[in-house]
Task: inverse folding
């Protein structure tokens, strides 16, 4: 199961950590990304430059495709090795981003007046951490309701941990 860190301070900091993938899968992803990146460069160095004809536009298309595919695979490698989803709850703002260790992505700052924390029940209904509930699902995503906006985590936690986090945020909200 995924782990988390909760720092109750001003602001409140919640970090959800990705469950690390098996090492062989990670090294395979990294190897494929490097190979896909190097193939066009080797073709350039061994086939095109020695002929003295220069680089044609037709070479740039496969090179750019290889570059984008290798960047995507490298990003996937970083997420499965170091990935964290971070929520920072301030007085009237929530900052959310994905941390890949070497860069941060999709940073959003949302202003709010009212904050509630939810999880998904077995029937797919959002349940507040402050409500009485019956049988809990094993895990769920965390849902933050910020006025009319709903922000869903991509990483799941144990439902009991979500309840602890939600109550801590509700009781200690700066």
Result:
């Amino acid at each position: 199961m995924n782990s988390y860190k909760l720092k109750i301070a001003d602001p409140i900091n919640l970090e959800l950590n990705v469950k690390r993938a098996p090492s062989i899968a990670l090294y395979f992803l990294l190897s494929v990304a490097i190979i896909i990146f190097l193939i066009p460069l080797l073709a350039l160095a061994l086939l095109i430059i020695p002929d003295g004809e220069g680089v044609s536009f037709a070479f740039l298309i496969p090179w750019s495709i290889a570059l984008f595919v290798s960047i995507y695979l490298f990003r996937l490698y970083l997420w499965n090795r170091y990935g964290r989803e971070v929520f920072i709850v301030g007085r009237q703002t929530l900052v959310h981003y994905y941390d890949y260790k070497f860069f941060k992505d999709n940073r959003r700052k949302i202003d709010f007046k009212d904050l509630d924390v939810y999880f998904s029940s077995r029937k797919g209904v959002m349940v507040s951490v402050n409500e009485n509930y019956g049988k809990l699902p094993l895990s769920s995503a965390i849902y933050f309701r910020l006025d009319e906006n709903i922000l869903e985590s991509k990483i799941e936690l144990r439902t009991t941990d979500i309840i602890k986090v939600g109550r801590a945020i509700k009781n200690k909200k700066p």
Q: What stands out?
A: The first helix runs from residue 23 to 48. The mean pLDDT is 86. DSSP finds three helices and nine strands in the chain.
